[in-house]
Design brief:
Layout: H1 2-8, H2 17-31, H3 34-44, H4 49-71, E1 77-79, H5 81-94, H6 99-118, H7 121-128, H8 131-152, E2 156-159, E3 163-166, H9 172-189, H10 195-209, H11 232-235, H12 243-271, H13 283-300, E4 305-307, H14 311-316, H15 322-335, H16 339-342, H17 347-362, H18 373-389, H19 392-409, H20 418-434
Antiparallel strand pairs: 1-4, 2-3
Helix pairs in contact: 2-15, 3-4, 3-5, 4-13, 4-15, 6-12, 6-13, 8-12, 8-17, 8-18, 8-19, 9-10, 9-17, 10-17, 12-19, 18-19, 19-20
Family: Belongs to the nucleobase:cation symporter-2 (NCS2) (TC 2.A.40) family. Azg-like subfamily.
Keywords: Cell membrane, Membrane, Transmembrane, Transmembrane helix, Transport
InterPro entries: Azg-like, Azg-like_bact_archaea, NCS2
Length: 436
Amino acid sequence: MTTLNKVFHLNDVHTTVKRELLAALTTFVSLSYILFVNPSILHAAGIDQGAAFTVTALSIAIGCFIMGLVANYPIALAPTLGSAAFFSYNVCVGMQINWATALAAVLVASVLFILITLLKLREKVVEAIPPDLKYAISAGIGLFIAFIGLQNGKLIVGNSANLVMLGKFNSPAVGLTLFGLTLTVILMAMNVPGSIFIGMVVTALLGILIGQIPLPKSLVAYPPSIAPTFGQAIFHIKDINTPQLFMVVLTFLLVTFFDTAGTLIGMTEQAGLVDSNGKIPRIGKAFLSDSLAMVEGAVIGTAPLGTSVESSAGIAMGGRTGLTAIFVGIFFLISMIFSPLLAVIPTTVTAPALIIVGVLLAGNLKKINWAKFEIAFPAFLTVVGMPLTYSISNGLALGMIAYPITMIASGHAKRVSPMMYALFFIFIIFFLITNI
């Protein structure tokens, strides 16, 4: 305990090993779906699905170890579904680029990411964002997470006329989600420690009892080999030799830059790591951690890693240090042999946790100065842009573009930093590259 306290400074943030372990377990359960969703998406690009499963678990474990030891943050690093979808469906399927070459593009973007981080450019960007927009980013992520939870729990479903609608309450999946949500809400209201995790466990047990969740066919299985993907990114760097592929590298760089920046701001705000001046301590180390994780992910064979929004579930359970991230990494290493057990956990079990966390993050809305329209409008675009465009980076971009415009129009041009003006043009370019 003494050694852990020296390394992770547990006493300084008033946490314990037990609390960090519970927080890590909550994050792991909330994030475990990625073990099966990410390989499915990568398989569409032509990557062996078995190898992708092991690579997903291994890359997350390594990323979490880096984040925990280097930055001492309770944040998990994992392949982001947005980047994975762009990798498979846009680059590999749409542009007909070989998956190994696409991995090489990720690797090149990752190296550029490290250079930008070492130059402290990412740190300067985050520090330049006004406090009100930081609160908006955190709240927007909350709505985004809640929206994902509502979808995963089948409470919100697609509709051709109205885009979305309520799910059918006679659906067993909806019933299980409502049970888990109601139980978790009651436990939270009663201030029961570990309420989110308890809610997930009880919901899973109920699902098994009523036949909604099948029992696993076996308990353990040997992890599939990563040989099909390991090192392919390095071997194919020489293939990055066309304007199209250079544009792919740039897009990976932009998407992961803004996705990670937005999510990291939201997670640190939720964890209470932001100081009284609005600055995030060790932000440079956190950025370096996700940059290094992006490199290792590309080398062993997966889409770009980034800050996981599911980390907010663990933070809500009291995770405050890198020990949480270390425990998450250990759980993912263990998960490689328990894949049959994890495969039976449906999204209806984790959906209530995401919805509850969304509520907690949305509390930052009260900190925004809504009385000043020049601040309220860009903040509003940031908040609604994330769930409505299904992208953290898009919501961030909308707010960053609107802010200089409203500030200039209201006669406060001098209050906008040069970096924010630079971001205005960068985000316009970002939209032109990613949405045309």
